[in-house]
Design a protein that fits this description.
Distance between the termini: 49 Å
Largest sheet: 22 strands, antiparallel, barrel
CATH architecture of the largest domain: Beta Barrel
Shape: globular
Oligomer: single chain
Radius of gyration: 27 Å
Helix content: under 10%
CATH superfamily of the largest domain: TonB-dependent receptor, beta-barrel domain
Number of strands: 38
Structural class: mainly beta
Length: about 675
């Protein structure tokens, strides 16, 4: 092979190979050295040598997968990253989606496979509840990924999108590296290095924010802070809720990075302090219930990734999370504390361009405590501790440019269950044409019971599900189409024998269920000049017999049909980027106790049209306006029924609706950077 650059690493001594692939050069280097080979389109190769003992030998270079049209395993996976070949979203799409308000979770709710549950704000994926999704930052788990919120008031994700370079959202069939998640995993990867020194200032109708990135020779730091106070906004835009203290929060995130030899060490930390107090209606009480909440959350992780030997990479890290909720319900008080620890070690061996192997292990520790005070006289304490040890291995094999597969196996043991799992994972991809391919995936997944149950009883087994996925992918220069069919069966789901689970409830693992459906995704940013859009549609048929259900039925968080269209259009004459998002969900089931059949009715369909408008005042100053639910659709998420019938024998009800018909947002964003052309337009 001609033109390969061969040299002693760390020196200028080297040569190019001739037409026969031969090379020769002289060097003053002595003893142990590293001989390095580089050629565009091929993986770099190194060989440890002793200069004085070097003899002629044959070396083989492998073509770089990222430079050729290789098949990509895509079943169950939606990626947002500039370096991904199957990118459905770009990183900055997370904050340009109208109606998302910069919330990663809200933007992902426009993706296929996600059920919109407006009163929650969390991720409900392919028939799974929100607790069936796990979140990771740089491969390390986050125990408390959502902000705290009262019942039936949607929450937000805790993470600012500005510190992350890429997102992988697996809706099923994910790697053996990840466990304790029945439905999906959300992987957030922080930026390895900022492009420049930069300061971002935000002045908004809901608060203020400050972000900054600073670079040095071998290290850098970035942070984002914000102060949010909704009281001024609520004075201008009245809500249906009766606030004693409007939501107020202080939060911040930071990432520190430093290069260590052939690796990179990252430290990520985030804190969040929020308070609120509201009088909430309850159909069972004449007077409103006073609900107060103080939440404190802290999370830190440290991750190292680097080469420990030629073609052998080490990734290790740990995290600690602390969450505390102080809740007041009239005169009653509820306090809970969660401490979570995660340690992980993974080795990745590259045998060749066609074979890569991962092996690793991890340890999780969870300590949850809660105490309830009634009338300042009665107190009850409960909680649980759990230690989980897991081992995983996975091989990535490319038989050709057109055929690849992953084989994985995971096993874990949770002390609270004291049972080893065996979780095989397999996925295969076959390229059927130049721009299209088919993928199939299967996986077995186990998860410990919901912490809301474990705090009352520790006699519950693992819940289990199996995923079966068929995926078609077409990807061609700015156009992407994904079609995915799936089936999930559930076993060992938790059931209880009371209207509301409590310390006196009897729990068991006799529940079961299934989910099947089709997810469609189309994105196009090439056909129409200045227009970038994507369209998603999901059909899901899901039934469960769990919790206190009388029989197997469609759960209340499932909408059979989900549709979204997201558009972004640049208007040069107006110096503006205009975005529209429309979301539609068919009605969700609910139980009407006035009828004999269980879960026999559905809400009306959900409709939401949202607008986002970014106006470029100057190169580094932007005015941003957004309106969520522009048309003021009166969306109903469900109904609360009285516990007892009235004198006529009828159970009265109240609708669970949006706090306000619309949400308005105005912000001014100012960037100060080395590059005077940089702004936050793509981040709004």
């Amino acid at each position: 092979m001609q033109g390969v650059n061969v040299f002693i690493n760390g020196t200028y001594d080297g040569a190019l190979t001739n037409e026969n692939g031969e090379f020769s050069f002289e060097t003053d280097a002595k003893q142990n050295q590293v001989l390095k080979f580089t050629l565009n389109g091929f993986l770099d190769f190194t060989e440890d040598i002793i200069v004085e003992e070097y003899t002629n030998r044959v070396f083989t270079l492998f073509q770089d997968m990222n430079t050729i049209e290789m098949v990509v395993i895509s079943a169950g996976t939606i990626k947002a990253g500039d370096n991904s070949k199957v990118t459905a979203l770009k990183p900055l799409d997370i904050v340009t989606t109208a109606g998302s308000s910069g919330d990663i979770v809200a933007a992902l709710q426009t993706m296929p496979g996600v059920n919109g549950v407006g009163e929650s704000g969390k991720l409900f994926v392919r028939g799974g509840e929100a607790g069936e999704t796990q979140t990771y930052v740089d491969g390390i788990r986050v125990a408390q990924p959502y902000g705290a919120s009262p019942n039936n008031i949607p929450t937000r994700g805790r993470f600012s999108p500005f510190l992350f370079k890429g997102i992988t959202f697996s809706t099923g069939g994910y790697s053996a590296e990840f466990g304790d998640a029945l439905s999906s995993v959300l992987l957030l990867n922080t930026v390895d290095e900022p492009t420049q020194n930069q300061t971002d200032i935000s002045i908004m109708t809901v608060g203020v924010g400050l972000g900054k990135s600073k670079k040095w020779k071998n290290s850098s730091i970035s942070f984002n802070t914000s102060y949010i106070n909704l009281k001024p906004y609520y004075l201008l835009a009245p809500q249906s809720l009766d606030w004693n203290k409007a939501p107020e929060s202080m939060s911040g995130e930071t990432v520190f990075r430093t290069k260590i030899k052939d690796g990179l060490l990252k430290v990520y930390a985030a804190f969040d302090h929020s308070t609120m107090n509201v009088n909430q209606k309850d159909i069972n009480y004449a007077d409103k219930i006073k609900f107060g909440l103080i939440n404190n959350n802290f999370y830190i992780n440290s991750v190292y990734k680097g080469n420990v030997a030629p073609s052998l990479q080490l990734q290790t890290g740990f995290s600690f999370g602390y969450g505390n909720n102080k809740i007041g319900i009239n005169t009653d008080k509820l306090n809970n504390y969660e401490r979570a620890l995660h340690y992980k070690l993974k080795l990745r061996k590259t045998f060749s361009n066609m074979l890569k192997w991962n092996v690793g292990g991890e340890f999780f520790h969870t300590n949850f405590n809660e105490n309830y005070h009634a009338f300042s006289q009665y107190r009850v304490d409960y909680g649980y501790q759990n230690n989980t040890v897991a081992l995983f291995t996975e091989a990535e094999v490319f038989l050709s440019q057109d055929l690849a597969f992953n084989l994985g196996l995971r096993s874990s043991n949770a002390s609270i269950v004291d049972e080893f799992t065996l979780e095989p994972r397999v996925s295969v991809a076959y390229k059927i044409a130049k721009k299209s391919q088919l993928s199939v995936a299967y996986g077995s997944f186990y998860q410990t019971a919901n912490p809301d149950y474990l705090k009352f009883t520790q006699n519950l087994k693992y819940e289990n599900t199996n995923h079966y996925i068929l995926n078609y992918l077409y990807n061609d220069n700015g156009k992407m189409f994904r079609a995915e069919a799936y089936f999930k069966d559930y076993s060992n789901l938790v059931k209880f024998d009371s209207n509301v689970f409590s310390k006196t409830s009897n729990f068991n693992n006799n529940g079961l269920g299934n989910a099947k459906g089709i997810d469609l995704f189309w994105r196009d940013n090439k056909t129409f000049k200045g227009l970038d859009y994507w369209i998603t549609y999901s059909f899901i048929d899901s039934e469960r017999d769990y919790k206190n259900y009388e029989k197997q039925v469609t759960p209340s968080f499932i909408a059979n049909h989900n549709f979204s269209i997201v558009t972004k259009y640049w208007v040069d004459k107006l110096k503006s980027q205009i975005g529209l998002t429309y979301s539609f969900n068919s009605g969700r089931p609910y139980d009407n106790p006035n009828e004999t059949e269980f879960m026999n009715q559905k809400t009306k369909s959900y409709n939401n049209l949202s607008l986002g408008w970014s106006y470029l005042l100057s190169q580094q100053k932007i005015l941003y306006l957004s309106v969520s639910n522009l048309l003021g659709s009166n969306n109903v998420f469900g109904y609360q029924y009285a516990n007892s019938p009235d004198v006529s024998g009828t159970f009265q009800r109240e609708a669970v609706t949006q706090p306000a018909s619309r949400f308005f947002f105005i912000g001014f964003f100012w960037t100060i950077s080395d590059n005077k052309k940089t702004n936050q337009l793509d981040q709004l």
